[in-house]
Amino acid sequence: MKEFKGIFTALLTPFDPQNRINEKALGKLIEHNIKLGVTGFYACGSTAEVFMLNLDERKQLMKLVSDITDSRVTLIAHVGSISADESAELAKYAEELGYDAVSAVAPFYYKFSREEITDYYRDIAEATSLKTIVYNIPAFSGVSLGVDELAEFMRDERFLGIKHTSNDFFTLETIKSQFPQKLVYNGYDEMFLSGLAAGADGGIGSTYNFMADKFIRIRELFLQNKLEEARAIQHEANEIIRILCRIGVNAGEKAIMNLLGLDFGLCRRPFRTCSNEDYALLEREVIPHITAIK
Ligand code: MN9
């Protein structure tokens, strides 16, 4: 049985100059994170620019991550899409590849009804024998899953838990206390320690790509009740995230990977490209606070 509690890096997708997935850079990123001690990876999520990848590329990325990790860590495949059929197809593929769980954002854009959203998740759960993690990210998806909706899924044994990318810790705490056997992952890295305090079992985050060690340490310190020290590291991480929010999180994260010597290329458009000033700022204010990649 794989470990599900802990730190899961929501993998970035490196692109080569032809805008294809850069396998070599992805391999280096994965090895670095495994060395730092992550529990596993969240593949093909928001951080991976998943909605700018076509179906073949999503499958290619899922396969690369499973081939490279080769069962060494726990793997969660994000299979969310606006189409239930596509999500089910991806969930089946994740199972074929040996993933440990699937996860999905709620279907968006059309303002689907609660019943339609429930059916969408059931379609995914039925497509595979893997457990499903509901991905709640209201600020991006426009769909806010509240306690009632989340509880309905948590009562269903096919659901493993939720990835909660929201600062609504009241909801997080309510779900965790009502369903202690289910897993709750904190989504906003800048609020990781707050999420732990509210009952989160771990975190799934984008900034873990280049600073997973900070979040592993925060969790260790939290579990040892060393809150002052945990808060000091959360603060260090937040100084970095503050800069990322200013220049654009996805573009900034790619630029950091490039500065660390991995060829991550650019984000897909319409994401912006970091300017020379952005690079200079990251080099000065961020890189000195990050563990080098060997
Ligand atoms: O789910 C990530 N959310 C998105 C996790 O990418 C939308 C976070 O890791 C954020 O990128 C990060 C910065 O706000 O906390």
Task: Kindly describe this structure.
The two termini are 31 Å apart. The protein has an eight-stranded parallel beta barrel, surrounded by seven helices. The model has no long low-confidence stretch (mean pLDDT 98). The chain has 294 residues and is of the alpha/beta class. The protein has helices at residues 23-36, 55-69, 84-96, 114-127, 138-141, 147-154, 169-178, 192-198, 208-223, 227-247, 249-259, 276-285, and strands at residues 6-10, 40-43, 74-78, 101-105, 131-136, 159-164, 183-186, 202-205. β1 (6-10), α1 (23-36) and β2 (40-43) form a beta-alpha-beta unit. The site of 2-(acetylamino)-2-deoxy-D-mannose (MN9) has 15 residues, from β8.
Short description:
With 294 residues, this protein is α/β, with parallel strands linked by helices.
- Give the topology string: H per helix, E per strand: EHEHEHEHEHHEHEHEHHHH
The backbone outline, from C-alpha atoms, is globular
Low-confidence stretches: none
How can the largest sheet be summarized?
Answer: 8 strands, parallel, barrel
From the alpha carbons, calculate the radius of gyration and give it in angstroms. 18 Å
Q: Helix coverage percent of residues?
A: 40-55%
Q: Which molecules are bound besides the chains?
A: 2-(acetylamino)-2-deoxy-D-mannose
Number of helices: 12
